[in-house]
Fold these 3 entries.
Entry 1:
Amino acid sequence: MKTNKALVLLNMGGARSKDELKTFLTNMFNDRNILTIKCGFFRGLVASMIVKSRLNSAWKNYEEIGSETPLHKLTEKLVDKLNTNLKGYKTYQVMRYTPPFASDVIKQMEEDGIDDITILPLYPQYSTTTTKSSLEDFELYSDDKFTTKIIKTFYKNEKFNNCIVDEIMSQTDTPQEYNLIFSAHGLPQKIVDAGDPYEKQMNEHVEILSNMLKKKGINFNSISLAYQSKVGPLKWLEPSLDDALLDFKDKNVIIYPLAFIVDNSETDFELNLEYREIAEEIGVGDYKVCKCVNDSDLFIEAIKDIIK
Ligand SMILES: C=CC1=C(C)c2cc3[nH]c(cc4nc(cc5[nH]c(cc1n2)c(C)c5CCC(=O)O)C(CCC(=O)O)=C4C)c(C)c3C=C
Ligand SMILES: [Fe+2]
Ligand SMILES: [Fe+2]
């Protein structure tokens, strides 16, 4: 019997308007994987307080990057390219906090006669706050409608890591004059202490990439890992990127955003504008930010390898 296969990309979503930022923040802070308060009523109360206090200041950041996240358009480009290049699959995208939501996409997939799916969360390293949250949300609506294969992590995939190395190499011909900082989205320390494998996998990922660069004879002055985007008063993973930049007064840095697959407000606003300003205040020399793998041809080839 012929099966109709689909590749389903999962990601977080982002804001394309102030209203959508409210939707994003409301859904995010009502997510038990993000705000780990057990009582749904109390979580909802805290969520609405956070949304109220954060919405206006967060929107100002989006206004500085053209009043929308680039995440959706870039994901659409990736989906289109996969639909042209990935034979035997129809590709769909599902977002966790903004449309297209799982319930609607699943309906569409049923109408399209899909019965066999491969789910690829666009998070190279596993976190309860991202991968688990997206998978739980998808499974809530998919029940056992499809034969399902899940790719939980892909930070060890060589073709994927070659895309990252290529982008880093494209930034400079003189790596010895630069310090490479892998920047990962942060997490509250208590989530890691409760068993989240993200930090461990992030360390492994940096080690894999450092070895690949070394093998290719690309020697940066230093390679390090730091965490960006802290939200709220809790202790988050360290070192923070702000603190890490203090070590590089009068030195050059290249930042690679290691937790993301497509560029978003955390790369375009935080890394390219906010942390750049911090770097200037510290007196960092050259400050370069790498692009995410986005819809690059090499990443399309990597996806073929990851799902095979
Ligand atoms: C407790 C809060 C948060 C956790 C934990 C968290 C983990 C986490 N997030 C990403 C990826 C992205 N986050 C983005 C935006 C964003 N994240 C948080 C909070 C937490 N994230 C907030 C409040 C926001 C909104 C912006 C802001 O107010 O600062 C985005 C960008 C979306 C966009 O619009 O472009 C991404 C992508 C990862 C990978 C992660 C854990 C590993
Ligand atoms: Fe986040
Ligand atoms: Fe942020």
Entry 2:
Amino acid sequence: MAEMTDNTHAMDSAWRYVTKNISKKLEELENSEDSQYFLAIANEYRSLLAAASALLGNNNEDDDHQEFKLKFLDMTNQAECLSKRADEFQDKYFKYNIPYLGHRCFKDYLKDLQEFMTIWSKETEKGRRKGEKSLIEWMQQLNQSQRKTTFEEMKKVVIDLGTHISYVISDFLFVVTVLGDRINLMNNLDYFKAMIKLLNVEKMNDFKRVSYLFQFNRASCNQQSSLGVVHLEYNNIHGVISTQISSCKQLTHFHVTRNKLSGSLPASLVMLNNLIQFDISNNRFSGSLPDFSSISGLQVFLAENNQLGGEIPRFDFSNLKLFNVSNNNFTGSIPDVHGHFTANSFIGNPYLCGDPLPNECPPSQSNTLSEKSKDSYKSSVTMFVGYIVLGLIVAVDNDGDDSMYKSSFGGLTKSETSADDQSGFVSSSVLVVLTSPEVNGLKFEDLLRAPAEMIGRGKSGSLYKVLLGNNQIVAVKRIKDWDISSHEFKQRMQRLDKVKHPNVLPTLAFYSSKQEKLLVYEFQQNGNLFKFLHGTNMDYAFDWATRLEIAANIAEALAFMHQELKDDKIAHGNLKSSNILLNKNMEPCISEYGLMRVENSSPSKSSNAFFKDDVYGFGVILLELLTGNLVQHNGIDLTDWVQSVVREEWTVEVFDKALLSECASIERLVSLLQVAIQCVSRSPEARPSMNQVAAMINAIREEDEKSAVSFEPSQLD
Ligand SMILES: Nc1ncnc2c1ncn2[C@@H]1O[C@H](COP(=O)(O)OP(=O)(O)OP(=O)(O)O)[C@@H](O)[C@H]1O
């Protein structure tokens, strides 16, 4: 009897000791989100288990009593019941995890998890109390009856209980880890309290942030319906990618941009034959790139803003739709990209050389570009790759707390989205798809999920190249803080949609909130006129006939738009050579028509006055076509320069040498220059209308065509 009292007393004080310490630890936990605390608490629990085992183990009775067996059975049943629940939960988990583990899923997942944990914590608390009571009762009876017992069995029950529960704990910690600081840990403290009392300490001690993550995925990957898509971008995940990732054979999409992952990429990554999209950009990876060339279906490879080095492997660039390794430490010459990617994909690697970068590779290959040049590369183009979505909305909404909404680009907040959708997510209905068969059925979610690369940032906003699920590439313009009401914007877009011209790029879809506007366009692979006139691309002959044709087409398209939108007073508002895109047939397309509200720059009250800025913009484009010079060159304004040269009658000097050397007609060059000079008149009143400009350019074109015909050999005979 004395022994029983001692045992019970020891057990009791062990529980009290641990419980007290756990509460203390939990209090500390409230001020910290450090996972180390969990480990500490786990250790406390381990002491408890050890104490219980010692107590059980010391008792060497060998009488086998029926009643005790029943008690064991009861506890085993309880464990099985818990295990069944854990399995049900696992099923739910798989539902979300496979094939899609995405941002949105987390919200649903978390909701399910919380619901489950509410039941779970009640059950386990009951179970624990019951188990504890049974244990003590059992020990009392044991002591009284002096019977032999199967202590091993008892220990097994305790451990089993812990193991089953550990599935749920792992899941929960997994979510906490994945969501990093987005999850409000304090709201879930109760669940933790319930779990910590029952967790399997051995497993807890193995817990490491990311390796754990992949351990879990590996477990999933062993299933038939294995993990296909991982979207863990914009978290706070530290650690390395485990070599075990290669077990995820069905992995097609791997997106971990904007975390704190480090170390080198495991060579086993190349075993992921089904990989289509791989985005590890904006992390801290180092070492060299495995040879991804064997993955034939790879379409997206984004690794910019890391510390990766070595040579760039020979990717199948013709298959890749998005590729970026900028701002790393890659060395050597760039493999042949077959014109599919520009310098933007490679800048910021000081020891990288060759096309499409401007610096040629030295014959010796010992390229020693200075740090300074790295800086100048970096500053020359502002690059940014990310997910439009996550930039816009990160919604993990447990309790409606505003702090749960974070916007990486300082974008939408809950209050902004709530006008459209009270749930906090922007529903598909707010993406207005205009009458365009190209993106029929496009939903806002599609845009949110799609990988995107920022390819430019202008005065009106940023532009993203976005790869949609159906492999279509679109351009998405994101305009911030445009002082226009959603209603007015919508009306404007719908009006513009009714005015179609083959040389004006139509808007395929748009989205509007108070501070944010998104416009979707077809992506034009050939880039813009600015790039052709002032860039390094020498592949395309930009001769006089081509330039005149481009000028005539733009003039006609603008004249048409001005005419059609005269009453609405919607001008282009930001006409310049980077807004003239070249389609696949190298025909010019005016992009972003109507994205700027134009104030009347002319004293005249006539509606024509609204279009005079466009005429000026067009005049500058003509000057760029004629001179081959930049608008601002060495601090000198192109229009001032041309006007001063013309005033002093050195006209020929203003023209692009390439035009002079192909013997373009000086007469017609001068005629076009005169049109340009009228367009850039200081006074808006003095500028012609686009209709007049189009007529003048057409006359020059006709002259040009006539003279070309008159030089046809057949005519000369
Ligand atoms: N639909 C498109 N397809 C391909 N490239 C595009 C498309 N629309 C724009 N671009 C290119 O993306 C880059 C960034 O465009 P963006 O409009 O943001 O900047 P910008 O034209 O330089 O300035 P602004 O904001 O003043 O118009 C430019 O080089 C532009 O030519």
Entry 3:
Amino acid sequence: MRDVTIAKSEFIADEKAITKIQDFQEDAELFRYCTLPQILKYVECFTGPNIMAVHTMLINKPPDPGKMSSRHPMHQDLHYFPFRPADLIVAAWTAMERVDRSNGCLVVLPGTHKGSLKQHDYPEWEGGVNKMYHGVRDYDANQPRVHLEMEKGDTVFFHPLLIHGSGANQTQGFRKAISCHFASADCHYIDVKGTSQENIEREVLEIARKKYGVTVPITLKDTWMIRGRLVKGERINL
Ligand SMILES: CCCCCCCCCCCC(=O)SCCNC(=O)CCNC(=O)[C@H](O)C(C)(C)COP(=O)(O)OP(=O)(O)OC[C@H]1O[C@@H](n2cnc3c(N)ncnc32)[C@H](O)[C@@H]1OP(=O)(O)O
Ligand SMILES: O=C(O)CCC(=O)C(=O)O
């Protein structure tokens, strides 16, 4: 994935536009992260013994190009997931260097994981928004927020309903983190038709057609089944 502003700038080298490697589950070295006992020990408390890595990312938040496009809007990860129950899904996010407000650390709204899934859309940001970076349409902006300042190697585990995002990277370095969403293999797929998740379904299927050249009819479930990888126990539903 490339930052929308940087990718369109003729003055910046192509590799400096790369903000994320999405879906690294087939890369042996990167995937080792998802199998680390130090991570799985905590993941298992949420998922139980049958653990799937459902979504992987190496995030390389670039120095902000001046348009604030390095921000990640406040969102709930469950918006992207066509499976339930939410309580059997957990994110692990590990800082690969010190992160604080200057380089755009995570920011969370504590307690929001006890709420429900909200409507998400592209935020109306003047400087542009990266592809598929949907944000919660309505949330109380006066609600207390916590900035997660973390040292290199620190990991945070969070619920897929927790409203979170990250700020602009105001430094000159790339802010690196590695992350995996885990889910219990006992989770089941849901049909998102008629729900607030229809907009992301449409977008993912369009990307599958246009970017990956898929010509046969596929479903949102197919896109998740192909990418998911078992890390422990038995692959049941997912
Ligand atoms: C499939 C299932 C996924 C499913 C993903 C499931 C996510 C689970 C989420 C869990 C919670 C979260 O992480 S929340 C955030 C979730 N969202 C994401 O992580 C989205 C990550 N984004 C991506 O992976 C990618 O951007 C894609 C696949 C959506 C689209 O890729 P792409 O079409 O190649 O575009 P991308 O590289 O991003 O580049 C952005 C724009 O810059 C242009 N561009 C690119 N390179 C250049 C260049 N050298 N010179 C000029 N322009 C350029 C592109 O054409 C595009 O313009 P133009 O075509 O616009 O004109
Ligand atoms: O690393 C970031 O800046 C934000 C990541 C995030 O919000 C997510 O992966 O859901």
